[in-house]
Amino acid sequence: MSLVYLVIYLVAIIYNIEHHQKLFVYLWSALFLGNLAYIIYSLVKSFHKANE
To answer: What is the tens place of the pLDDT at every residue in 9-19?
Structure first.
């Protein structure tokens, strides 16, 4: 489900860049990076759990 949100945020960033709405670009970029960090954290956590 997080990957779906990642794609939605990326589309929103591209849309707002094309329409020159910098405030929303920053907002969607923050959400995108936060979601990406969460996905990476989840993968690392599951990888470490598999190695125990």
So the answer is: 999 999 999 99
